[in-house]
Every structure is written in structure tokens, then in C-alpha cells.
Amino acid sequence: MDRHPHLWAALLAARRSAEALAFWDEHHTNRVAGQETDRTCDLATEKAILNELERHFPEHNVISEESYPEFATKPRWIVDPLDGRVNYLNGIPHYSVSIAFEGAGTADVSVVYHIPSDKLFTAIEGQGAYLNGRPISVSETTTLSDALVVTGFDPTTIKSQNFNQFRSLLDQTQGVRRFGSAAAELAMVANGKFDIFFERVLSVWDTAAGIQIIEEAGGEVTRIEQLDSSNREMVLASNPQIHQEAVSLISSSNQGD
To answer: Which domains are seen in the chain, by residue range?
Structure first.
């Protein structure tokens, strides 16, 4: 790890976040309806992550969902301290921590930690992607009809009068699933569990680590950034064999929205 201090810092930060979440959980056993608005669990994990990162690299900038959402120059850390908060608060074992380092002349590093399953996805620029230390790669599915898609429903999609993109995915693929943690699902595409990831509106902290992990696992990613200061974008990721076909499908169906 001496050769990869940024990865080491990210791994320690991810572990600290899991410890902070376990401590928070121990002291918040009486949960009530409507608790999905409670962000104190996010703040607890964010504090643990940022404290660890600052211990190693106090001079670096940070973009983090809860406290530092504004654009920051490189070198920087991009953090989602709890991606899938609603799942976590309702006892659904699908949530993750996302930590990405974007260097200025230094290799980028990404970590996605799926806490319930203790699965730690990592990537270093140019050195491949790994799950708990073992190399991973995207699927080898060659036809769109055989592809399994994972997605999310965002406010833009819900307010739209047309769901043409999702209808097209439902009609022309094996199936579509929605689980509620974009970072974890991007990592699952990198590991070949899903063939395609698609979501219309995501923030940079949702995607920074997962996208790098997919690319290092041999996948392809198409991103369309919103032309504002929101750090939001549309993301379509898949294996190379079906990527252009998937892009064409989404692009053509988008004309009706």
C-alpha cells in the first residue's frame, strides 16, 4: 500500500464509515415511519470518512453530498457517505459508501463499499478493477435482448409525462431492476452481475467511483452532463459489446420525452 497511499486512505475511510454506521445503528433502534428524511446517519458516516481523509491528505479538496456539494478543483475527493439511505433506514440490506480520488498528475482511485455484504470494490487508474482483492470484469453478453438492466427513478423521470426510455429498456432487454444505490449498482455492472446501468439524473458523488470501476473492469460509459452548476448527469454504462446499441436505444426513445 506504500505505492498507493490514496487507495489506502480510501479503504480506511470506507471501513471507518461502516464503523460509524454500526455505532449510529446501535443508538437509533427505535425507528418510525417517515424516517427516510433523517440524514443524521449520512452525517455520521461523512464525518468518519472526512476525518480519515483529512488525516492523510489535509491539503486536498472535497466534494461530499451532505456538507461540501459545490465544485472543487483537483486534487479532490468525491464522497457519497451513504448511497441508499432509504434502504438502510428501512432495514433493506442494499446500501454503499462511495469514495473517489481525482488526482492532478496522480492516478485516480475509487472505492465502493457495499457494507451489508462486506464487498469492497476498488480501482486504480490503469490497473484494473477488483472485488475484495480479486480482479473483476464486465459481462460478456452480446445481445441487448439478453441484457439485464439496473436503473433508478429520479425526480425528472417521475415528473415526465413519458417513460419512453424505460419502456424501451423493458421491451428490448431481458429485464429491468431498481434497487436504490447507484454506486453499488455501477460496481455490480463492473462485476458482471448486470449488463447495463442507466439513470437519467445523478450527482457526481453517486457516480465518480462506480464509473471508474466500470471502466477499469473493461466497460464503457456514456455521460451527458447537465449544463448548470448542479454536478448532475445522465449515465449509461455497459459492457463494450452492447454499448452502442444501448446508447442508440436510449437516444431514439428520448425523442418522445
So the answer is: 5-136 (3.30.540.10), 144-256 (3.40.190.80)
